[in-house]
Amino acid sequence: MSVHFSGLQKLFLAVTLPLVIGARYFPNWESIDSRPLPSWYDEAKFGIFVHWGVFSVPAFGSEWFWWHWQGQPFPAYVDFIKKNYPPGFSYPQFAPDFRAQFFDPEQWAELFQASGAKYVVLTSKHHEGFTTWGSPHSWNWNSVDTGPHRDLVGDLGTAVRKRSLHYGLYNSLYEWFHPLYLSDKKSGFKKQEFVFNKLLPELYDLVTRYKPDVIWSDGDWEAPDTYWNSTEFLAWLYNDSPVKDTVVTNDRWGSDCSCRHGGYYNCEDKYNPGKLLKHKWEKCTSVDTFSWGYRKNMKLKELLNLPIIIQDLVHTVALGGNYLLNVGPTAEGTIPPVFEERLRGVGSWLKVNGEAVYTSKGSTVYAFLFVRPWKPVLELSAPITSPSTNVMLLGYPNRLKWSPIQSGGLMISLPLEIFVGDLVWTLKLDSVK
Ligand SMILES: *[C@@H]1O[C@H](CO)[C@@H](O)[C@H](O)[C@H]1NC(C)=O
């Protein structure tokens, strides 16, 4: 095949290519927001979120345990400690029991791949400040100095990438009880000692060591982005970091950023805009509806069931979002079998129906059935058929019979006997408009 350029196109290429390739970003939102999102992210559609840290040891309430115990005390948390731990017990004393003795990164990675997810995001540091890697800026409050004595971020990353999944890291900007953060806060965030002496050196180190594909930023809301030096960090990330061409980030970079600035939008936890957005977005949600971290007292009725998860995934992807589904591992390093069952269930469903989630093609449309059909005929009014239109049910070998409706659309004959259970079914229509 030969490609011909007109004179004007040649001129255009000559002028624009060097500019695009040499693009540098400046530390302001207009420039940062102009960066195109690396394409792997939109293609990925589905990721697994993992909340793991010292909060997995008390495993009570949620990963906000420390805050609800001693920051803004809730009676249930205070009582839990009073009943189960000796007087004077402090939160850091949980760390030695974060042992991860059964943590097998290969097993986790196998499960995540089997779920059909294309990326994994692990908490490298939640609001408690404990790092799940050997951060030199978090002395004795990291998973190498204490607890499992292991580089959890590194070990999971190696296993996940071996299976060609993308690897992202969650990082909380603020730390509830860090003395430098508290003194900056006292100054009305005029001082930036926490940012310059803790947060940024640690973030630069994290990116350089592990080369994450996602930086899932959080804990930004108490202070403006100028306090966090967010645009300066992002300009470095996009211009000069080892992941400048591949990394994606979200929108939690300061109290004024959510749903407005950064990379893709998270807006709020569990957010769904309910309509197509022009800007790429992600819904993060958790199988345990009460918590992101593992809870020993969770009950089955508090978990998302498989049909709900699949509907949520479909609804999110259909509106242009990515779906990031969270599981909380135990302090011992296991993923509770009930979470495993959900993830493998999503994977089995995606094996059959995944082409409708991962791809979109010219004259093919997919229709999802969220409720089990009870009539042998289904009417769709929107698709414009042609004589060569084919109608398939994914996972069913035969073509479905159909006939056009005079006023528009088509009637499809459904083999009712094959609809069992409560999952989502996908109709595939070829050669339609
Ligand atoms: C933080 O931002 C200010 C400008 O707003 C800049 O002068 C300073 O060098 C930045 N510091 C770091 C460590 O990025």
Strand order of the largest sheet: 5-4-3-2-1-7-6
Q: Which residues form runs of ≥5 with pLDDT under 50?
A: 1-19
Quaternary structure type: single chain
Shape: globular
Structure class:
alpha/beta
Instruction: Summarize the amount of helix as a percent range.
Output: 25-40%
Distinctive features:
433 residues, alpha/beta, 7-stranded parallel beta sheet, 3-stranded antiparallel beta sheet, 13 helices, 32% helix, 15% strand, binds 2-acetamido-2-deoxy-beta-D-glucopyranose, hydrolase
Task: Characterize the structure shown.
With 433 residues, the chain is α/β, with parallel strands linked by helices. The protein contains 13 helices and 13 strands. The chain has helices at residues 7-21, 29-33, 39-44, 65-71, 75-84, 105-114, 152-162, 179-186, 193-210, 225-228, 230-239, 306-318, 337-358, and strands at residues 46-50, 119-125, 166-172, 214-218, 248-249, 281-286, 321-327, 365-369, 377-380, 390-393, 402-404, 410-413, 425-430. Strands 5-4-3-2-1-7-6 form a seven-stranded parallel beta sheet. A three-stranded antiparallel beta sheet has the order 8-13-10, with no helix packed on it. A three-stranded antiparallel beta sheet has the order 9-12-11, with no helix packed on it. It is globular, with a radius of gyration of 24 Å. The two termini are 30 Å apart. Residues 1-19 have low confidence and may be disordered. Bound molecules: 2-acetamido-2-deoxy-beta-D-glucopyranose (NAG). InterPro entries: FUC_metazoa-typ, GH, Glyco_hydro_29, Glyco_hydro_29_CS, Glyco_hydro_29_N. One of its GO terms (cellular component) is lysosome. Homotetramer.
